[in-house]
């Protein structure tokens, strides 16, 4: 084995800039592109990988780090084609190249690794690579990406991806990206997916199962579902309005930001659906023939605009993902003949009033970042903003927010500055009341 990396790190080169997950993410560089070539054996849960990570140094570097789960064994590391010293422990791959790297230089790091992948275990349970009863599901929010590939695991470091994935031929392999090619060999099939749009590592996903693909809508954005025979009888009803949902969200938020959308229905029950870039993953329990979970279909689709195209710079700003996707549920409800946004706002305001007001939405803390309060009060913040500036200005604000920051990272401060352009008066008190203070403000109402 290559000797461990000597002590004496480049200052800041292995430190995360995310205050919520300081053990994930690395400083000193920005990733430009990931090229992953993976071979997976389902029965033995064995993954063999070659990852080429192309990055640009944002400071001089004598060494740098990547995130990779300890259960995966690193066999070889090369930097710009030359063997590099490395040490892999506690989820960090520490790399010392043969020569120091200058500011602005492009770094091409090749890592060969293998092992039995599994989820990252932490405060949110098991996150990342997860074996199903017959296949694989990968849901990496917020810190599960190192469970299957070496990366700079922070949401603000977005990059393009090329993923070549070989698996047994009876299985369909779905990777977040556009399918470039599919080659069948002796007992296995190699799938090649390209994700051109800048993508956060947590939004990359792999889904493996005995899936059949069906179309969800005709014309417009290609919308498909990957399903198993178990849900074939109810999918047409439960997802029958998907094309209408897409049309409504495009009208409200602007053009869908990716080339296609794939909704995967895994052949297992899941607690909650999860979004990936251009994809959402549901459990079979989310389809029941009664559209019980249609609001979740809307929520995950809305994340393609809010969370995926516009990605938070760090996890403090998560209300920009979840508050917006929750408000999209309320908007669809009103547009489709269900309860109005006012009705949803009233109901959830009463719910919030019955619970302790002990979270600051703009910075909820790592233990509360997925708290329902952040979701619902984040949505109410948008409702209050809409009531304050009026219908026309509000939806113009949303569409320009999406358009101007397409495939970039965003923060709460950036949104406040953007919203100010659409108001005739100051919005400082509105945002302070809803985002910066825990006390619940009075209920806003759209007239």
Automatic annotation (TrEMBL):
<keyword id="KW-0378">Hydrolase</keyword>
<dbReference type="InterPro" id="IPR042097">
    <property type="entry name" value="Aminopeptidase_N-like_N_sf"/>
</dbReference>
<feature type="domain" description="Peptidase M1 membrane alanine aminopeptidase">
    <location>
        <begin position="245"/>
        <end position="434"/>
    </location>
</feature>
<keyword id="KW-0031">Aminopeptidase</keyword>
<dbReference type="InterPro" id="IPR045357">
    <property type="entry name" value="Aminopeptidase_N-like_N"/>
</dbReference>
<keyword id="KW-0862">Zinc</keyword>
<dbReference type="GO" id="GO:0004177">
    <property type="term" value="F:aminopeptidase activity"/>
</dbReference>
<dbReference type="InterPro" id="IPR001930">
    <property type="entry name" value="Peptidase_M1"/>
</dbReference>
<keyword id="KW-0645">Protease</keyword>
<keyword id="KW-0479">Metal-binding</keyword>
<dbReference type="InterPro" id="IPR027268">
    <property type="entry name" value="Peptidase_M4/M1_CTD_sf"/>
</dbReference>
<dbReference type="InterPro" id="IPR034015">
    <property type="entry name" value="M1_LTA4H"/>
</dbReference>
<keyword id="KW-0482">Metalloprotease</keyword>
<comment type="similarity">
    <text>Belongs to the peptidase M1 family.</text>
</comment>
<dbReference type="Pfam" id="PF17900">
    <property type="entry name" value="Peptidase_M1_N"/>
</dbReference>
<protein>
    <recommendedName>
        <fullName>Aminopeptidase N</fullName>
        <ecNumber>3.4.11.2</ecNumber>
    </recommendedName>
</protein>
<feature type="domain" description="Aminopeptidase N-like N-terminal">
    <location>
        <begin position="32"/>
        <end position="203"/>
    </location>
</feature>
<feature type="region of interest" description="Disordered">
    <location>
        <begin position="1"/>
        <end position="22"/>
    </location>
</feature>
<keyword id="KW-0963">Cytoplasm</keyword>
<dbReference type="InterPro" id="IPR014782">
    <property type="entry name" value="Peptidase_M1_dom"/>
</dbReference>
<dbReference type="Pfam" id="PF01433">
    <property type="entry name" value="Peptidase_M1"/>
</dbReference>
